[in-house]
Structure formats: C-alpha cells, structure tokens
Amino acid sequence: MTKCVAFHSYKGGTGKSTISSNLSATLARRGFTAVLLDLDVYAPSLQDYFQWQPKKSINDYLFENANVDEVIQDLTGVLNKFPPNDGQPADSKGKLLVGFSSTSKDEIYKLDGAVRQEGSKIQLLRKFLMLREEIVSRYNADFIIIDTSPGIRYWSINSLAIADTILLSLKLDGIDLKGTRLLAKEIYESLTKLGTKSYLLLNRAAGYCLPPSMAGENTASTQELYNTTIGNQSTVISKLNEDIGMDTILSIPCYCDIQFDSNEFLTALKYPDHPFAAKIALLIDKLKEI
Ligand SMILES: Nc1ncnc2c1ncn2[C@@H]1O[C@H](COP(=O)(O)OP(=O)(O)OP(=O)(O)O)[C@@H](O)[C@H]1O
Ligand SMILES: [Mg+2]
Fold first, then answer.
1. Distance 16 CA to ligand 2 centre (A)
2. Distance (Å) from CA 30 to ligand 2 centroid
3. Phi, psi dihedral angles at 252 (to 5 degrees)
C-alpha cells in the first residue's frame, strides 16, 4: 500500500525540502518506488537538489495542460551519479519519480489567482485529488513524499489532507514553537481525528551546530557532542511533545557543512557516511514502522 508523507512547518527554512528530497532519493536507492511532489507552489526549490529543469510541472497537470506521465518525471538515473553505499550497488528495483512545481512567475500568479475564485478552486482541488489517485494506480508507488510551503497556505493544507502521515518540522526557537502550537491546535487536531498520523521532526534545532570536520568523519565523537547538547535530552523532547500534543519522530542536528554550503544537494547520497545520511536512514526505519 502507498504511504503518503507530507512535510510541513510553521516557519520557513526548517528543512522540509532538504529532508524530503534526501529521504526520497535514499528510499529509491533502497529499492522502493518513491514519488516526490513539490507542493511549495509559491517558492519551489526541488529542481536545485536534482539539478533538473522540468518541461512540464504540477501546474500544467492542474490546468489540464499535461497528463500525469508528462509531469511525474523519472529521475532514477540521477541517483547513478552518486557513489554506491558501502561499496554495494543501489537496489536496481528502486525508482525516484518527481513532480516539480513551476518556477515561472506567470504560472505562480495564475495558480494563485485561480484558487481565489470559487469555481476554479474546486476544479483544481478535484485535479489534485486525481493526481494522488493516478500516482497510486499508475506507478505502484511505495511512498509519496510531499514538500509543502510553510504556514497555513491553500496547497499545503490540501497536501496535509491527502497525506496519511505528516511530519511537522521545527527548529525550536520561540516563534517557531508558538506557530507550531497554533498549527497543532487549528489543523492537526482535526486531521488526527480523521486518522492522519502527525509527528514533530526537530531539525537544525537552535543551540548547537556541528562543524564539518566532526560531522563528516568522526561519527562517534559527533554523536557524543550531539548527545551532550540536545539530541538525547529526553526531558526537552518529552516536554515539547506534551506542550504540542504530538510525539517527536526524530531529532536532526544542525550540521555546519550543510548549513553553509552555497548549493543545495543530496548530502545523504553524496556523502553516505555523513551522520545526516544515518538520520535519513533512521527516518526511513521509523516511517516503515508507522
Ligand atoms: N540538519 C541541517 N543542518 C544544517 N543545515 C540544514 C539542515 N537541514 C536543512 N539545512 C539547511 O537549511 C536551509 C533551509 O532548508 P530547506 O530549504 O530544506 O528548508 P525548508 O523548510 O524547505 O524552507 P522553506 O520553508 O523556505 O521552503 C538550507 O540551506 C538547508 O541546506
Ligand atoms: Mg522548501
């Protein structure tokens, strides 16, 4: 059965795009069929992770200018650019399929304008639901991973509504916490009643940052440093869970080399020994259990 996981947050820059793209690529490497959708329609960024210029976008599908096969592009070949993990070749059954949002200003305005009119809004919502159905039936997807816009935005809420698992990422600063509480109360509570599972995902939490020398090579000492900061401070996490009313699925440190790199890339594939790759692997294990 297809598992549909949406990444959301109150504030921007909490790592939704970084984690969703690394997660999808790693899933494909492990033999799963992962379909990654960029639903951050106001500021799409997934092309940067895959260095890919799509010919057709999700916008085209929603306005009936393209069919699903034109929009969901097979990027499995991109994975071959990266070194195999532990000297093992990637599982050849795996597939990485990606649906991008348009980065054209006119297309973004067009979509934004259409959702302000009741008639076209319903039409677009129907198409969106159809997109999920088509992905499930045509590609036999194991996972649909959705990257959304932060905050309470039309396409983010639609994405949450079609997901069966929501990962709400946060950095643990004051504004973030206040907003996350609000999202939990206003949106997640009602989705949970309908059977959606939602979890907090701590990423780049304020208060620690691991230098590249430690993050890249010495996993044991990196872990030790992390443990003395926030990583294993179970009291911090359990207080947070109680405060927001959700469990934390995973806590990922802030790695300086990821933070300060001028390009966005698939760290988990490019540096399979990086502790960030181990965190992505752990996230996969947890998602498989849910
Ligand atoms: N664990 C991490 N450690 C260090 N830097 C990180 C980490 N996760 C993400 N980043 C960096 O933080 C920045 C923001 O990440 P990203 O773009 O994935 O966030 P986002 O939630 O998708 O943002 P937006 O809401 O603007 O779409 C990027 O430069 C990314 O490389
Ligand atoms: Mg993003």
1. 5
2. 24
3. -115, 130
Q: For residue 254, which atom of ligand 1 is closest to its CA?
A: 3
Q: Given its phi and psi angles, is residue 64 left (phi above 0), alpha (psi -120 to 50 degrees) or beta?
A: left
Cβ atoms of residues 5 and 114 within 8 Å: no
Strands annotated E in the chain: 3-8, 33-39, 72-74, 95-99, 143-148, 165-170, 197-203, 247-252
Instruction: Please give the number of the atom of ligand 1 that sits closest to the Cα of 264.
Output: 31
Ligand nearest to the CA of 169: 1
Kindly provide the residue ranges of all beta strands, DSSP E only, lying in 83-152, ordered along the sequence: 95-99, 143-148
Distance in Å, CA 144 to ligand 1 centroid? 20
Tokens (6 digits) for 2: 């297809």
Please state, as a whole number, how many other Cβ atoms lie within 10 Å of the Cβ of residue 234: 10
Which residue, by CA, sits nearest to atom 6 of ligand 1?
A: 259
Average pLDDT over residues 164-189: 87
The residue whose C-alpha atom lies closest to atom 15 belonging to ligand 1 is 15
Model pLDDT, residue 253: 85
Domains of the chain: 3-289 (3.40.50.300)
**Residue owning the nearest CA to atom 8 of ligand 1:** 15
Tell me what percent of the residues of the chain surpass a pLDDT of 90.
Answer: 65
Residue 221 alpha carbon to ligand 2 centre in Å: 30
* pLDDT at residue 210, rounded to an integer: 57
Cβ atoms within 10 Å, residue 137: 11
